[in-house]
Amino acid sequence: MLQAVLRGLALLLLVALLGFAFLAWQVDRLGGRDDAQALDAPAADTIVVLGARVNADGSPGSDLTSRTYHAVDLWLAGYAPHIICTGGFKNERLSAAAVCRRFAVELGVPADRVYLADGSSNTIEDAVSTAQVMAGQGWRKAILVSHPLHLYRARWLFRRAGLDVVTSPTSTEVARIAPPLRLWYAVREAGAVVVTALDGWDTVPPEWIARLQRWSYGLQ
Known about the structure:
By secondary structure, the protein is α/β, with parallel strands linked by helices.
């Protein structure tokens, strides 16, 4: 009897590991393609730049720089008439959203075409804040711009918020990411998807969820 139970548990563990590996592969696979570029312009109502680090001097960090450049390139190519910048404290001059907006305007996008979805500190809140901005404008479809290995989770969360989204990574050349770092990002993003899905389950202790969130929500 005990051996049968152990074999059953081992099988369940194997299935869980295979499922998690498949999820991590999906994270990596999505990051290697640009779904927006496959559509005819205009492809959406707006381009959404997911927030990233801002330098101490108020300039965009490397990730935010590449995301904003890519969003502006899509805007210039006519893929959407507007841009939404997300992330950071609301009405804060140095929030990721505000810095992104300022940079996009410097790159030639008219100020009235760039909207803020600030007041958010993670991708879940980015999705909710963006959905509110888009609802206020009567928009439904968006192009998400972020790090290639962040987009699987972002797409899921934005769709969960009721938006019609496609993804456009800052680069589809995921093979250029160092293999250990690429694996780590894919595993961590897959873990973040699982943690978000588990959040709210009564059978999972809240302290476990909080600990897993601190571990898995690092890539923005």
